[in-house]
């Protein structure tokens, strides 16, 4: 578990305010202030979300109280809010990107994960639309649980489907294991992302258009 000194240092590395960190980690500015000033003792879940927020933006935590900007291109998110953190990273990566397209393979809409996740997904889809970020989604043949227009979707044969979605966005590829607990592995590498993007497009062009009405 990271220390309070590491939280302060990591914030300095990224030039984040306490409000910035709170927004990234999904907690209030006042909570960050109290943690850093050692006024309150945070829950482990809160510290984990703070650590995830830093790590997804390239901070590496070292033994003792050390921090540095990581040379690594792989980040791992785990826990109940890993899926939310992935959606946040997709939005934050693409909102200012030239290529505003998310490609999703082996998708299953996460409506089975409860009201909290469903509501967060609804918010995520709204902000994608507002930022003119589009999606192309390949799901299992016969799946009609669509949260967008049918034109966004393609069916792949059940024999070729794996219920572990892969997301390609910007220079990143993310692989999601639903769990529990959920685990997201994000690879930030432009050449690798382009390779996986080309494989997706090859499959998309050969996949079936869902046989349902708009």
What does this structure look like?
With 214 residues, this protein is α+β, with helices and mostly antiparallel strands. It has 2 domains: 4-69, 434 Repressor (Amino-terminal Domain), CATH 1.10.260.40; 74-206, 2-Layer Sandwich (Endonuclease, Chain A), CATH 3.30.870. 40% of the residues lie in helices and 21% in strands. It is built from 7 helices and 9 strands. The chain has helices at residues 4-14, 18-25, 29-36, 44-56, 82-94, 115-130, 190-206; strands spanning 59-61, 67-69, 74-78, 101-107, 134-140, 153-156, 166-169, 172-177, 183-188. Strands 3-9-8-7-4-5-6 form a 7-stranded mixed β-sheet, sandwiched between helices. A two-stranded antiparallel sheet has the order 1-2. A hairpin with a 5-residue loop joins strand 1 and strand 2. Helix 2 (18-25) crosses helix 4 (44-56) and helix 5 (82-94) packs parallel to helix 6. The longest helix is centred in the C-terminal third of the chain and has 17 residues, at 190-206. It starts with a helix and ends in an 8-residue tail after the last helix. The mean pLDDT is 91.
At the fourth level of CATH, the homologous superfamily of the largest domain is Endonuclease Chain A
SSE order: HHHHEEEHEHEEEEEH
End-to-end Cα distance:
48 Å
Number of domains: 2
Number of strands: 9
Low-confidence stretches: none
Over the alpha carbons, how many angstroms does the gyration radius reach? 18 Å
The strand line-up of the biggest sheet is 3-9-8-7-4-5-6
Shape: elongated
Give the biggest sheet.
7 strands, mixed
CATH architecture label name of the largest domain: 2-Layer Sandwich
Counted by DSSP, the helix tally is 7
